[in-house]
Amino acid sequence: MHDENQLTIDMPIVKLGRHIMAEQFAQMELYDADLRDKTAVTTVHETRKAIRRTFTAIDLFASYFTPELLAGYQHWLKKLMKRLGRSRDMTVFLIKLQDYMANTGAPLTRLESYWHDQLLAANANVRLYLNRPRWASFWDEYAAFVNTASQGVRPIKIGDPIQARHIIPILLYRRVAAVRAYDDLLTTKTDVSIKELHKLRIQCKELRYAFQFFTPLLGPEITPVVDVLKALQVNLGDLNDARVALKLLNNTPGRETAVAHYRAVQIEEISRQMAAFNPLWEALNAPTWRQNLAAAIAVL
């Protein structure tokens, strides 16, 4: 018997888009109760990841749905994402601080205590937001959208490509172009800022999500393509974590000795990650990476 949820290269692209958004909604739904109750580290991480993937899906498939409808859903998810982002940043800061203290024996407990209290307040703010009546209305509306086949679909003109195999290559290469466009900046500017690299990180993350969405339909060559992208993303992620840590340290009252100590650690981490960046970027720009990508897409 044919599985209605099975992805195929011949399925309508709008059906594939809704399927992907429904998968991400199911992930958010899976963690919803814990997010409202304990706001655990894993819950925050997985919910943020599902929302990020939803944003990527909306960008990929926006032209096949009513734009005002998707923009409204994105608006509410962005509000939650902002609150989750603060919880996430503090959590990562504390985990890395605790690891550093465990490995070095550095007495930074007062710094840890201050940001732990701030994390508790940030998590409480997440729970407060989720208990708003308007959020419950949005949640029900969005659930209906991802589970209703005809809702919000734009009319298709005769002759328009609608099958996944026709459109996926365009969607993927558009995201690839958004990443590779940074090569001009990186080869012409000698002092690329961490903020600029953070924007590249976001583009890399969106490209990786796009690859993951379509992996079941692509050739096996997509695996080394994603592996290279993942290594670059980890590097840029660690670089951004150090940038955020410096920002949090700048907002820490008192505790001057601990702040100065840990600021020096973050500056050293930034130097280390910046040095590791170029080889990873070269791997993504290598002909082998593009050839693997082309081979993975060629099966469509």
Structure characterization notes:
The protein is mostly helical and 300 residues long. It has two domains: 12-148, CHAD domain (Alpha solenoid), CATH 1.40.20; 163-300, CHAD domain (Alpha solenoid). It contains eleven helices and no strands. The relative contact order is 0.11.
SSE arrangement:
Blueprint: H1 13-37, H2 41-61, H3 67-104, H4 109-130, H5 133-146, H6 164-180, H7 182-188, H8 194-214, H9 222-250, H10 256-284, H11 287-297
Short descriptors:
single chain, mainly alpha, 300 residues, CHAD domain, 2 domains, flat, 11 helices
What is the count of helical runs?
Answer: 11
CATH classification class of the largest domain? Mainly Alpha
Helicity, as a percent range: over 70%
Write down the secondary-structure element order. Answer: HHHHHHHHHHH
| Annotated CATH homologous superfamily of the largest domain | CHAD domain
Integer average pLDDT? 93
- The global form is flat
Q: Low-confidence runs (pLDDT<50, min 5 residues)?
A: none
